[in-house]
Amino acid sequence: MTHTPLKIENAPLTLRELALNNVRRAIISGYFAAGDRLVERTLSEELGVSRSVVREVIRYLEAEGLIEILPKKGPIVAILTWEVAEQIYNIRMLLEQEAAHDCALHAKSKDKKLLHEKLLHIDRASREQDDIRRVDASQEFYKTIFDVAGHAIAWEIVQRLNSRISRLRALTLKTHERQVAGYERMTRIFNAIEKNDPAQAKQEVFEHLTEASALARLILQPQE
């Protein structure tokens, strides 16, 4: 029997956690497109879990901003607008620039080694053209930067937005308009941190997010 992309396999997580991860990834990857209606019964069958588990998943993803509940229609995949995306990029710009700056300021040899390992994970996923793994690896790369910088509260704020950030990353990864590949951008940030150059690390984040934001706007903003 052929398994759907949502089918849950055996793993040391609860059914709710597995179902949540699978539906989240399905939305981020575009398996479920913006505006798609999410039917409890269908999701229950695809995931192989009870409808009560599906309802929990829907509530959780609604809180993350990935699902909207519409009157008389029920849950749908949230429409990602440029107005929302712009706010997310503005928040990222403020928090990630400062995190990269302070990471470069404080990074020791062991921190640089760990960050380089995270960078290699991005490279591997990029070469294999695995968008979901690239998104996950990018998140781990940034988490390391925030950890080394000592910006725990800032990372908590980013975590609340991470599902929508990941959705935007996956969206821009599919475009061909990138002037510089995402992995190359990450490499430039890493190189500045490796040299303990805070100003350059901050500048590289600025250039990376400026390009990503422009791509997202091109995709999301209706042509006038």
Structure description:
The protein has 224 residues and is mainly alpha-helical. 70% of the residues lie in helices and 4% in strands. It contains nine helices and two strands, in the order αααββαααααα. A two-stranded antiparallel sheet has the order 1-2. Strand 1 and strand 2 (74-77) form a beta hairpin. Helix 5 (109-127) packs antiparallel against helix 8. It is globular, with a radius of gyration of 18 Å.
What's the number of helices? Answer: 9
Strand count, sense and barrel status of the largest sheet are: 2 strands, antiparallel
The low-confidence runs, each spanning 5 or more residues with pLDDT under 50, are none
What would the average pLDDT be, to the nearest integer?
Answer: 90
Proportion in β-strands: under 5%
- Overall geometry comes to globular
Distance between the termini: 48 Å
